[in-house]
Amino acid sequence: MKKLTKFLALALAVTMSMTALVGCGGSSNEPAAEAGEATAEATKVGFIYIGSQNDGGYSQAQHNGTKAVQEYFGDKVETIIAENVAEEKQTVKTTAINMIDQGASIVVGTSFGFMDALEELSTEYPDVTFLHFSGYKMNDTNFGNYFGAMEEPRFLSGMIAGMMTETNKLGYVAAFPYTEVHIGIDAFTLGAQSVNPDVEVKVVYVNSWNDPANEKAAAESLLAQDCDIITQHGDSAGPQLAAEAAGKLAIGYNLDNSKVAPGSFLTAPVWHHDKYLIPTIEKIIAGEYAPESYYGSMKDGYLGLAPMTDLVPQDVQDKVNEVAAKMEAGEFPVFVGPIYDTEGNVLVAEGETLDRDGIWTVMQSLVKGVSAVN
Fold this sequence. Notes:
By secondary structure, this protein is of the alpha/beta class. Helices cover 39% and strands 18% of the residues. It has a six-stranded parallel sheet with strand order 2-1-3-4-5-11, sandwiched between helices. Strands 9-8-6-7-15 form a five-stranded parallel sheet, sandwiched between helices.
């Protein structure tokens, strides 16, 4: 009797074990996996942000690119995200190494101040690919950089401001007096002057990429100086909120903020980071990536203008769309001479058109019509 009981217990255990395997996804009709057979693992990609992914500006635009990557690749790619990472070399290195320890084979740094840390890491981790937004350093094995011709949509946004201003005074909240920022100010000003030669652009520097309180205060000071349209090169929506509170208009930056400040928002020059990230990550996964210094444009869809809101008159929209179509066809360069600086000196001679290298070399000065104010 004891033997029979033991036999029945053993039979019951075997039956329960088989049932459990089928319930967990196994199948008694499928052959067992052969020894050594591997399951494809997701490629892990680390993204390092200087701000938060919902900051309403720069880092949120970066995160929109990350989300597009996730959606495109599905379970083939796993993303690791680090927010609010300071532009301090060791902090950046520690953050990236933590991602690598989690299995990341691609690390993307999205702020200029991350550059030196990524350069060092590219030597220390030759099997990891590093991509850096806005920098200029790279190597020929595993470290590339990417940026874009933001001067194109900046020019278009200037056209809107130039046609819509009633005071002929435009306000520009700027982060730092850096070349990148000056290129944007100059392009915006040239766009405004192309439709309104009487326009002035007043600039306030806040000496920070992301300081919502100071950005808002700077916009308020410009509004107090009779500027009736505010634009910006900074990370937050502060200037747009200041314009809305004053009953004035605003042009944002980085992404479509029409829902944040619907009473002031006209449009914004925006980034479409997925246009670079997706094909580049595809190449890396396929083993076909070669480091490059990518400079995207409206022609390849990397940059654009957020949809103009109903606050922009139709005739203004039509004129801007006409020029935008030429930019998208690669037929409308922004920096074409003659262009003069604030002292009346020639920056770009008549008949001369600046290419990428020329833009970043020459357009470090502010153009005629711009003034820095407190």
